[in-house]
## 1
Amino acid sequence: MIVLSCIGFVSALPASIDYNINNSNYDTARNITSPGMYYLTENISSTNGIIISSDNVTLDGQGYFLNITGNCGINSTEHNNITVKNVKITATSYSGIYFKNVNSATVENNTINTTYLCSLWGSGYNFTVVNNSLASGFGGNYGLEQLTTYKVVGNTLNGKPIYFYKNEENIGEIPSDASQIIISNCTNGQIKNLTLDENAVVIYIGDSSEITVENCIIKPNIYHEWDIYLINSENCNISGNTFSTSENTEFAVIKSYYSNNIIISENTLNGMQKGFSLYALTNSRIFGNTFENIYGNTIEGSVSTGVYAYLNNFINGSTLTVGNIIFNSPADVIYHYNVTGYFGTAGNYWSDYNESGATTTNGIYSIPYAATESINDSYPLVETFGTAGEPDDELIHLTEENFKRVSPYTGGGSAYVVITEPGYYVLDCDYVNTSTSNYSIVIESDNVTFDGNDHWLNTSGNYVVYSNARAMLENITIKNLMTSSSIYLTASNSDVSSNNAQNLEVNGNYNTISSNVMENTTYINYYVRVGGAYDTISNNTAYKILYHGYDSKIYSNIAEYDLFVYGDNNNISSNVIDPESTQGYNYIEIYGDNNAISSNGVDYIIYLKGNYNTISSNTVDDHISATGDYNTISSNTVQDNIWTSGQYTLISSNTVINASYYAIDPNGYYDEGIDAYATVFNNTVLASKLGIWLDNFCEGYSNITQNTVYADDYPIIIGDNITGCNIYLNNFIYTGNSSNISGIMPNNTGNNSLVSPFEIEYKYNGNTYSNILGNYWSDYSGTDADGNGIGDTSYFYGCDYEGTYYEEYYDIDYLENDTAPLIDMWNGNEIGNYVAPTISSSGSSGTHYSSDLSYGIGSGAIKRAVSASNVVYGNEIDQGFALNLRENVQNGNNYQLSGNTIIVGGPEANGFANKYDSEFGISITNEYPGENKGVIQVQDIEVKDGNFVRTYQVIYIAGSDRFGTQAALEYFKTLEDLPEGPLMVEWTENGPVVVE
């Protein structure tokens, strides 16, 4: 209780009475019974103090001393408009100034030296307390109604400021020079790291919320008072403080009335009469405190509902006179026993526990501790909390005990383990229960790692690990869990890796989801589903991988059926849509803009809908379908066809292996009558029925140049409604049986150009020319009299094509005139010397992973590893070895790690190998591992990518010499799975053998 005194000035006082108080008249004058102005005219010493028994009184001490030894220096009860100023008061028995129910009081510029509880004590309204110097506390009986009418400014306690706050939000951190702190009707204040040792109730908190008292030393030299007084407040935290008293007081160090949701934790109390006095406290937690040598009541009072006391140490004194407190944790908590961390329901440590028949499990006694008939601790601790051996590994172990009971979580259900505190949690057991719908693990705290430790955890509920979807958590790790159930996480800046589950769903930003395996032998649709932004999804295996978000990287995953992405600015690379799946048609589906889809392998289709996307360097065992504007489709290997719909599409440098019908069809928007304006450039069609198909679906105003097309019927179809196209420098090779692919010669001449719109410089037979150029037609039979590579007569390309489907659209009678046909095939910048590429036909049989994969690899795991990796070499010898894995390989000397990679060859010749050689368990040199010996090693390597760290799998196949590298590579192809550690191999006359 703190004192506030008030003096008030009233503008209309009765006529002033000048009255001087001195030693000669003190015995009668000290009782002031009439309004007026009173003055001390000399220093006065007496047993008795001055009594003000009238309203409207001002007492001006004029700097004189008032030394009182028997009672208060100045006191008044139930009067108004009292002012006391400029008095130097010494009171040895009671308060210097004592006001009771005095309204409109002013106490100003006084020096009050007392050894009692309060220098200034009062109650009433409208106190003004300004520039007083006190030797002990400022206190009184008051609450919200009184304190919010006070003005308290410039006062000190033994030279240190008294801080007073009222009606203020976000008061912030209290200054470190505080002597006494009074807070009324305020929010969000922090009292931290202070030493409060004055003769006062050093902290008063009334009608306030979110006030923290943390890590303070609180030891006021006080008698008959409390250290901290808390009344009618909520959501406050008193934690980590050390309490002691230099006087033998019967008062508790914390007194609380009518407060809610209060945390009192990890405080230390030693050698005092009482601990806490708690009345009408609700929904609060008292935990982690140490009560030692408390020779009165450790906790007294009568709380209301929802108050729990747990993980406290009651040492040498545990008298409790309190009702309704529950002496165990409301849910599982972290505690330590015998240098091991555990997570479970916990009680308190009682130094006088003496149940001789009790056994212990995870640091909990089997027999409850009964303090009284009404106070019972069902989970007493074997060791003191917080001092009994912190675990060296800082792990929190989940054992079978955690799965014997359930706890509620805030989402409304129940779970065996509800994680509400940060920490590193490790599963130490298998738990399988298919008869319950309770979740196994629910995470409701930031900064949590849950390590399944390769144990099995199963439940018939929807999720085995779950986070409350109502709250976005931060910094969560879930790893190494084995389950046939599902995992669900709503969090950001988190990592879900190396789990084996049925389904996995993660929602949030800046997450890493890697190396998870989703599988189920009875349920087909098992998936990884992710939503958010700036995520990394890599090296996962599932039936489906589904992503909804933007600015993320999705690479090196294996999906048995579908990789689905909805969003913008994503990088989708090096994924394999498993052709060994029994589901038939497999997809990569992309919906969005500015996505990069590269280096993937898919058994059936890449399907795209969006704008400004790039589809490049993919291997597709059927076709690519893309709708939208400004898309780029380049450098892909496609088994059947490429179909687009939109404007300004670039289709370049692709290879179509064996189109079952048409190979390339660049449509516009037919329903709207909008032409394509596409560019079809430098593509190779190795086999088709119809090559480039301009079939009256608004393919107009497109540029089609430098393509090489082999076709059984027509290398190019030009519909009679197509106009504005430039078609030149293409090689059109007819492979069918007809003698003339020109067909009929219709009367209407086309509206497209079959020659270049400008002169082109080129070479032919060693000479350089510059001319308008047309196309190469394999059935052109004209002559070249001037020897410049251009036919002397025009090539008339007529078409009488009638389609078997939608005949009304595809019945085409059309004539185009190539006035500068090429005598030989176009090859870069010259006519002639063209060599068609040869690419292994992948078909759609489902017997391999990517079209360029070596047939010498048998294991599905090794196929997946090679399909999902870039293969790099250093010199020609190592290049030859690398080509034994796949046809698409690259020089590693300037290679930057940006995806899963296989290194072929050692650091002497391979710059990339030299850069990362030290990352592996065995470093390769010309001397080690030795003649004809090589090593196979697998390592996850982290690289910085902007503000993120990416992890890629790197396989290192190298030897001390060429035979060592050959031995390692040939043996690698025979493996069933990737080795867990370095595998040394030697080349012998019988081939590669493992070196034991």
## 2
Amino acid sequence: MRMGKMGALALAGTAMIMVAPVAFAQADDAREFNIPSQDLGAALRAIVQQSGTQVIAPTELVAGHQAPALKGKFRPEDAVSLLLRGSRLRVVFVGNTLVVQREDTGQEGNETAEGQGEILVTGTRIRGSGPVGVSVITLDRSDIAKGGFATTQQIVQSIPQNFAGGANENTTGLLSAAGNGNVSRGSGVNLRGLGQTSTLVLINGDRPPLGGISGTFADISVIPASVIERVEIVPDGSSAIYGSDAVAGVVNVVTRNNFSGAETSFRIGTADGHADEYQASQLIGVRWTGGHAVLAYEFYQRGRLEAADRPYITDDLRAFGGPDRRSNYASPGTIIAGGRNFAIPSGQNGVGLTAARLTPDAINRGDNWYGVDILPQQQRHSLFAAVSQDLTETLRFYAHGLATWRKFDQGVRPENDTRRTVPVTNPFYVDPIGTHLPVGVQYSFARDLGPQTQHGQVRAYGGTAGLEATFGRWTVDAHGTWGRLAERYLLLNRVNTARLALALADTNPATAYNLFGDGPSTNRATIDSIRGYSDRNYDGIVWSGTLRADGPLFALPAGDVRLAFGGEYREDSYRDGGGTTYVSTLTPIPIAKAPLPGTRVVKGLYGELLIPLFGGDAIMPGFNKLDLSAAVRTEEYSDFGKTTNPKLGISWQPIDGLTLRGSYGKSFRAPTFTELRQDPGSMGYFAYPVADPASPTGMSNILVIRGNDPDLTPERATSWTLGADFAPKGLPGFHAGLTWFNVDYRDRIGSVATNINSFLTDRDIYAPVISVPSAARVAEIFDSPYYLDLAGIPRTATFAAEVDARLTNLSIVKQSGIDFDIGYGFDAAGGRVELGAVGTYILHIRQQLTVTAKPADVADTTGNPVDLRVRGRAGWSSGGFGATVFVNYTDGYTNRTVNPVARVHSWTTFDFNIGYAFDRDRGPLRGLRISLNATNVFDADPPYLTYLAGAYTSGYDGENASPLGRFVALQVTKTW
């Protein structure tokens, strides 16, 4: 994997861009070059590797061209010009970047894959320049091919800055996954582990509709990897540029809008178990005078990964030195009579069973992982289209759209197992103690009905259309974006208790339900009659309109002062479509729709200024280059008011090859629709007894308020970064980058409700939410229609405190760490060697439950990011052949789900990719590339830990490890 910093130009599939904060070679720097005659793309890559200069070259432009040999000392732009002789291509400078374009482009800037006049990089609204002071991680078509990635979530999850906790198909039931709303088995992004709602996801710079219950994340699983040109990631607060949610950073998926020709690709992969993978895609791009169009289709399917295929995924962890957490519900089951347990024997069908055959004072235990899938079966169809047409010499129309249909199916752990009452009239009734009274049976229906299964579909549609006009060196863009994400899920194979009660009371042995056998011992029609289900529907919709402009204001000796400004209007809505339940009634009944708030209207204005203070001809000792940037954005929300957020950036190059940079900014996250609910169903009052060291009896009564705070405000954060990038002239091909980041995240929305027993034992922690109620206040609470009598405490009792346990702006998180990226490319063994590593080291994640609570450092603990993640790489390429090895390291951490706490070992896996691209100019194999990829090639199991979360038990941590094991895939791609 390459992180998009200086040091390589990769050409695979379509146009690409390398974004880098590092120092680039100055225009007057001459370098030694020794490049043999070869494919033009490979020759340009050698220019990058030998000079460290950033080069952008759309693949469709350079494809099929042969470059002459080049040897001698040249400036990088002169070297590129020599390679382009006779190709009808030219090279121009855009900022510090060399851009290859057609000689007849007629544009002052570069024709990029986006079809724009100049590149618009994530993290800034100013074209032709990357964000000042901020590093940008870029994964392009070459990175996708080398990494062997088949899906967008695999691409994003490969970077060390992303934490898998949250919306992830691999984290169902885990600690931090609770409440992530991922009912449709999608995948979100969770930069820095600050929460999936704190990372902004964009597609071509615009917001897609949100998924998950209440719109808690953008589902990147609906974006087909074959239509991605690159993924740009800014791991820094960016609300001054993009508004809400960009607290931890921004992920922007840029599609292949300018692809030309045809590309056909097939992929097949397999892992131990049934998780086979199939992928097929077809892209077609055509050009005409003043325009182009792209049409693409992708099919993707992956089989389910069953818990039975991974021995460490079980409730019984005794084989690993852990506990036995199997449930009391099994088949055969256990009879409860007279307060005693009687285990039902195995190997019989419950017919003629007598009490003498039961095992008294014993319980049959069952593993709730029976029939469960760790990873769901997924199938997806995606269709993408893009078009651009010049209407005049200065006006262009463009549009692009994506439609995806995804369905999933996954066996899940059972919900709501409970004791069943068998009447004496049941023909299979067994009386273990001779009382001739109804008996209880603890029985698992998983073998009768099959495992409970979540099944559903996601339909995602979206599109953008706009006009782009040029006025001299200024660009004005006006466009509209619409998107919808509809989710429907069903929970199947549930027990319908009403139907079961009838079947248990049935006196006919041919049709009555038999709970006394080993496995299914009941008539199949009767079993089917108790098969219940529930289903729900959710819809997220976004509509936005944007008008923006950018261009130069005036010239300084170091370059143009550039300005970007604009306005945006957005409407977000999320609707609960209701559903149906058939689990406790004789006929299906509707589920009421949650009364979520109405459409949220957002109006925003922003401005961004880039000031080049030194550079170009104004070089001074110690000030080869100095850029400043300033941005501010103000937004008005229809549901909570206004917010204004600034950002500053600085980039200083004191000497050639060294760049120092820094940024400061403020960010925010708007409350979700569920967090803003104020209907009666979302609130409640109750009285409860809790421990109280200040009470003579050791206990006191408290009043508790639940619900959502009507005065909820956005979460807010302040971010700092400081960094350095080093690319010495004396060591061509080497680069190193280091970034220190610090996030002060406050007013985080949360509730103390789960800590009810600690309210009075830790008064200093909960002081902000504790008050002493007056007699009038006690009467008001007891008289409220929302009062719940949970503990039978009378209103005449004495109450020591009233605790506001509503969802409110409560907690604080302070995080600090270091990102690093180091790489070195050099010629060896007749080819090119590339070495490097990227990683993140977290210094601390200090959480405070309330403003008065003592901070607790949760970094390196279960449910939170580990302190160190690294992905290293070593590759060699020559001609069309290339091989790359990746090493992935996740540091050890502490498991706090057990007592005493335990240490989890580190985990190291290796990935391997080998590929060959046939010569584009020769024979029927022209444009063919074959690659073999293996992830976790040595099939290393995740490090063992006893993972306990309520009733959930497992021997691995899905937030920091994958259960997939060794996965091998073969991919064949043909360009036409």
